[in-house]
């Protein structure tokens, strides 16, 4: 049983399927239906689906472009008949012609859309020339196994030349046999359904407990029970993984937003309220790089997220250095005043960007590596944009660690963080270190903006969302420790994700914040505090 | 034998992996001026921090007046019991006048008035002692370094403490100022008062101290009079060997 | 601290407030009276000035920066709004919006008694003291200070905002509360009511100003400054600074609460926006611009910034953020003690090392 | 005389607000003769700026059109723009300023319900007139507010009806996801009441709310998938999140591989502007419902779109000239409706203008002839259901026959 089952559609489909074998395809009527009202379009879609399963090779070749054209609103209906607008061919005769003046491009209703998607995939599975296209078509069919017309998969398997794909088609055919009459086929179907555990599969399988065969046939009952147990286990694993993954992805965002802040805070005791705006500017620089590539090197457009890395880092680092030199340097030992000063900077930057770029969300290309996701197990889907952020966070963490641990600048930063006066005494140019470290922290914020642009909407306000969260990470982690920042981000991210499904997003946020406030009462210096004599 | 003002027993303090004080025991009697000396990082200031309640030790105890455990009590409670301390870095309140400092030091209370005759007398007395009477209405922020040192001494002195701890009272002072400070400290010596001085200036220590404790790496290296300190090979090794 | 009789800026400001309040009361309704808009604006400004004073008391005189003072402001605002709604309901039968859209038949139980103003006032004080007391006690006890304290208070006010956004808390949710029709039995929105509220705000402002002046001039005030300058020093002189800080913190919270009670009837609405971290930050900006650690400065800062904001948000909406950020930078760099420096003609070279040395120990 | 004494009083008191007062006084002196003033209450900064900001320009454009035809009652229109900065109390403050100081004849403004609720007491007190261009939760009928867009009973319910019908997707199960404030809650309450009358049980729906500006929708999309996989009929998502949460939700939804043909989303506050910056290929088929869609047919829309594009170009407006959303058209209608009413009344006095509402009609860019009656201050508009296309816009999937009569108070709550 599936929630996609549309009983009326199915019965209609069966009727047509049995009738179609007798009569040859009435192409003119089909095109007329495609241009008709919602009901007629639905019939036409079902007819196309039937052609894919049972039609002759010529009919299939003729029908192949139609479903796709309807989906893309590329079918122009005029008085005569209809035109495939993209190719400039008559839909019926395939003679080249232009649509009439009053041509209308019908829009498939949501219900019909689903039928046409299926028909398009079915036709592609049987007649597309590229293996990749056939594989993609099979993926679409897999989403709605109950609606695949009888005979389609068998016919497709018979003519499939690619061995791997044929295996996949057979597997799908087995799954589709769940409601067949042969108990052995059903048991095989159960086993193959259990291969891919999901809630949907569970719903389908557990519905079988009310099947007559469940009571009468022991083998079948065992198979059903085994399948549900296996699916349940799969779902449990999937849920656990999903929680971990979601937590990790949220943590990576928190980490990216906070790491720059942590370095600056640790070093100078300055809470940089403009950090969120530097993130925003990083995202805007990324956008500018994208726009530049669009004109200068369109072939590299997909890689703008990678190519923008140096630009995002350098521009924000430069802004950070400018802030430090022009403002914060003069507020040495006045951390609360520098807090206000950076707030002014944040106000200024938001409004500057607003005036220059406007308030609308920026438009980003979505390259293949940050779009979509792969189902792993159960209901766990591995989404690429999150993965990008996670990977980016890990790379950033590694690089930051290397800079702080392995470079002279890092050594100086650590020295000044631990004891500013002593560092100054042994000849470390503390002002210069401040400047460079502020640049580094700001540059990291710019990178955060780059990494977050595939996840969040980019507009002048976007930085505001990160302020409180990233503060919390920094103070929870403890002043100026990278490890503290990582642990705090992971902790906050994971706890948030665990609470959210229980009490909702607002409560999760409130609870996490209250936990942090309480924790800081207990350990005011954060998780990784360095103890010392009275300052 | 004079009564023990402070008894430090088996004291240990750690900062992370650094052992600031390591199983230190020490007794300071009423009526004596005790100097605590030692190289940087020997644990001198940390010792004062523990006694004044700022730092909590990992283990060990500190008995005041021979009976009262003061480890674990608040700084304020310890101070009210009669243990007062001048900090290494002159710690004065920049926004207050000299007179206000002494008055705050003399009388512990939130509500009491500043201008009662008894308090005014005491303030005047202390101001004379630390020779700041002519600066009584100046803001502390405007004083010279030496005057700040004296002001702080005056502030801790004002309450007639039983234990007076001075952390580097002559650091950064001119010779003449050091001289004056030395005579001030000697003048403060009383049978019912113990004075602990942490100092690097050996001449100053020699002038004021009855006994000297040398700390090294958180332990007592030597205890005795200044002459014997100078003669002790271990002390010489610690001071000159590195 | 100068004796109050010689504190001319203070005397001048109090005098001015009293004169304006008197003039407004006397000329109300005559052609010489202010327009309702101006009267209302002055009243709101006065409420903001009270709020600024509350922050200056702890930031300027105790060295504790709270970025969550909007919380106490909002407590006052919410309580007075509850009083107004309940009172309006009792007098005119107007059912508040939020009851309607939540589908509730009656006020939640904790609204009981709020139509009686003294009870509402008591509730406001108790709630404020409870929040401020508990939070202050644990924070000061564990010696949370400086930037940490600022961030934690910001998180606190943010948490409160998230909670108040929820509709099921029974305080109007995101929409907050509005539609106040009657106060103390008198209709809202009339000239008389507007002038009355404005005059009351001015009088309260003058009162709070005098009270704060008395406090900071007392021995207690000296101890506050001592705490600000070197808290450990003061503790090792035998003072339980926890008690002192807690007292001033609670006092400051109550003053902020009073400001909220004055503000909400004049603006005619309360919603969680008052709890936004930005507003709380802005309070600090007013104080910093006017002059931290100077009561007169805080009042002037609040009046000036908000008056310009009122004016510019319709006259030149685009430039306001730029002017505000410019003002902050100017103050931070050139007038480290706020615009009060202007009055004292204490213009210093920007970036001079002397000025830095003269800075009072804020860093601690 | 009055003017001088006020000024001298202010000077004497040396009040900080003197700067505020004097220009206002100078301006109010000419209130009786010069152009008639209209006020805009739309934020050009803060969270609402992207949506509200463009409405300022639409109002100006409509005023220009009217002025080009000679103005109203012989006077030209002057539009005052403010920036309440997405700060709700500031809306009230600005409204006060415009009504009391500037004597604005009418206000056009507010997007969120909160801001409207904030301004409401001010316009009622000052006996002003506010044109509110957004669809909203209904259950309100102030004589000082003109509700130019539709209450839920005449917009949301038809859309949900369509989705529940066989022509739609025969929706049987409903996941309601909204921002936590009055509009989503009221809409959902009314929907639940409506479903109950249709015999749908409570197990068929689920309600979740997120805070304003919420962006991390991973867990919620997981929940939606789990809800859908429980079986029991076609599920849909009724989305009432607002602002930047809309694109963030859609992005996560598409990334988890859910298509409109699996679980359609009915985004009640979703407009073309929310799709800016999204890859809509994977979102094709999701739905919204408004009283206007950019793809509406008819000459009125063509003219409006062209005028807007020209206006954007000519005046350097910082918004896209190719995007036109319902609230823009509603704001545009508002100005024309007000001008027609004022013309008909021969006066700018609010009571007179209000009396003239009965029987007003206007050719809205949506292609419908929108109208007002004397019964209430609602405007009868058509209803569109839009379907996301791959060009970041909405195709018209369904539209109402005529303009349903607006029902201010929902019978289903």
Multimeric organization: heterotetramer
Q: What is the second-level CATH architecture of chain B?
A: 3-Layer(aba) Sandwich
Overall number of structural domains of chain B: 1
Rg estimate of chain B, integer Å? 18 Å
The secondary structure category of chain C is: mainly alpha
Helix content of chain C: 55-70%
- Calculate the mean pLDDT score of chain B and round it: 85
Distance linking N and C termini of chain B: 39 Å
* Global outline of chain C: globular
Give the DSSP E fraction of chain C (strand runs of 2 or more residues). under 5%
Low-confidence stretches of chain C: 346-364
Q: What's the total number of strands of chain B?
A: 10
What can be said about the biggest beta sheet of chain C? 2 strands, antiparallel
| Overall 3D form of chain B | globular
Helical residues, percent of chain B: 25-40%
H-E order of chain C: HHHHHHEEEHHHHEHHHHH
- Category by helix and strand content of chain B: alpha/beta
Roughly what is the average pLDDT of chain C, rounded to an integer?
Answer: 85
Rg of chain C (C-alpha, Å)? 21 Å
Strand content of chain B: 25-35%
Strand ordering within the main sheet of chain B: 6-7-8-3-9-10
List the helices and strands and how they pair.
The complex is a heterotetramer of chains A (535), B (242), C (364) and D (413).
Chain A: H1 7-20, H2 27-34, H3 38-54, H4 57-71, E1 75-77, E2 82-84, E3 89-90, H5 110-127, H6 131-143, H7 152-159, H8 163-176, H9 183-195, H10 199-206, H11 212-216, H12 218-268, H13 275-296, H14 304-326, H15 335-357, E4 373-377, E5 380-383, H16 384-406, H17 408-418, H18 420-425, H19 430-452, H20 467-477, H21 482-503, H22 505-522
Chain B: E1 4-15, E2 18-29, E3 33-37, H1 44-51, E4 59-64, E5 68-69, H2 75-81, E6 83-86, H3 98-106, H4 117-129, H5 145-157, E7 163-167, H6 175-188, E8 194-198, H7 202-208, E9 211-216, E10 219-224, H8 226-231, H9 233-240
Parallel strand pairs in B: 3-8, 3-9, 6-7, 7-8
Antiparallel strand pairs in B: 1-2, 1-4, 4-5, 9-10
Helix pairs in contact in B: 3-4, 3-5
Chain C: H1 8-27, H2 36-62, H3 70-92, H4 97-102, H5 117-141, H6 146-165, E1 177-178, E2 182-183, E3 186-187, H7 191-217, H8 219-229, H9 231-235, H10 241-267, E4 269-270, H11 277-290, H12 295-315, H13 320-333, H14 340-344, H15 353-358
